[in-house]
Design brief:
heterodimer, A: 5 helices, 60% helix, B: alpha/beta, 14 strands, 35% helix
Chain lengths: 124, 285
Amino acid sequence: MKILISNTSDTPLYQQIKDQIKDAILKEELVEGDALPSIRAFANDLKVSVLTIRRVYEELEQEGFIVSQVGIGTFVSTSNLELLRDSKRRLVEQKMTDMIQTAKSLKISKEELNSMMDILYEEA
Amino acid sequence: MNDILTVSGLNKSYDDFSLKDVTFSLPEGCITGFVGVNGAGKTTTLRTLLGLTNKLSGKIQFFGLDMDKNEREIKDRIGIVLDGGGFYEELSLGEMKGIISSAYTSWSEQDFKRYMDMFSLDPKQKINSLSKGMRMKYALALALSHNAELLIMDEPTSGLDPLVRGQLLKILTEYMENGGKGVFFSTHITSDLDKIADMLIMIDNGRIVFREEKDTLLDTYRLVKGDSGALTTDARKLFLSISETDFGFTGITKQISEVRSYIPNIMVERPTIEDIMLGNIGGEK
C-alpha cells in the first residue's frame, strides 16, 4: 500500500490517510483479512501522531472497512460488499462532480460533456 | 482515553518569575512535547510536578494518584531525566547505578546492561569523564531500567549532535511500541517534535498557551506569503504574527479561509512547529 501525504494540501492529515487506505481497499490492493500496521508503527512510518492514526482507524472501523481485535490487530474487512460497491460508486461520483465543475467553469455544455464522455469511455 | 498525568491550577512564584494557573493533562499512549522559549517556565513546571521544588497551590495527579500523598509510589513508576543528572561526579557509572537502582522496586539489571551496551557505555568509567551526550545516554539508561510507565525529561536533546538526537528519538518510539504509557519532554529544538510528538503543550511566560494534538495544530495553522501592499488593517487582524520585508510578507494564521477572501494571490504552506511556536509568542504586526 502506498500512502503519500501532501504538505501543501488543505485536506487534514487524517483525511488524507483515511482516503488513501479506502482507495487501496477499493482498488483491491488490500483485501479481506490483510493486517494493517499497529497504530504506533504506522504513525512512526508516516511521521504523524498516533492520535491521527487512531482517528483514522476508528472512522474506518465505523464505516465498516476494517475491524480491530483487541490485542491481535487491525484487519481489512470487505464483508460489507454493498457498502463497498456504494463507495466505489461514490468514488466515481466525486470525480464526476469535479469534472462537471470544471466543465461548467469553462462553459462546456452538458451535451458536449456527454459526447466527450462517450468517446473517451470507448477509447479507454 | 485515560490521562496519565493531570495538573490543575498550579501556581509557583519566584521573585522575578511565576507559574500562573498551569493546567494541562497528558493522554495515555502519547509522546508529548513541552515547548517554549528559554525562561518560559518549562523546567520550573517539570521540577514542580516532580516535587523537587514546592508549589504555592495546585493539584498534581499521576496515574490517577495524588502526588502529595503518593509521591513514593509515583516516583517508582516514572523515569526521570533532568538536565545535569544530579550524579556524584567521583563515582563510576556502575557505582552510581548501585545507589539509584536500590531506590526502585522493579529494577531490571538486564535492561540496564542492554542500554549500557547499546550506548557503548563502560560501567567502570567515572561520571566526571563523560561527555554531555554520554551523560544524557547514561541518565536515559537509568531512567529506562526500572519498568517506568512514564518518562519525563527536561531538554534531553539540547547540546546533542544530530546523530545522537536521532538515536534518542528512536529509543523513545521503541519505548512507546514496547508498552510505555507516555513520554513527556521539554525542548526548544522543535524539529525533534515535528518527527515524533503526538501532543504539544506550549508554555510562555509561566502560562500554558495551548495543549493540542500535533497534527491538529499543523492542520489549523497556515503559513501565508504575499504582497505587503495587500495587508489592510482588517487583514492584519487575521494573523498571529507577520514579518515584512521589501519583497513581501510572511505571516502565521489560524483563519486561512478568511485570509484567502481578504488577500488574493497568496502562497499558503503548512507551518512547522517552530513557525507555530514563534507565531504564538507574537511578532511584528
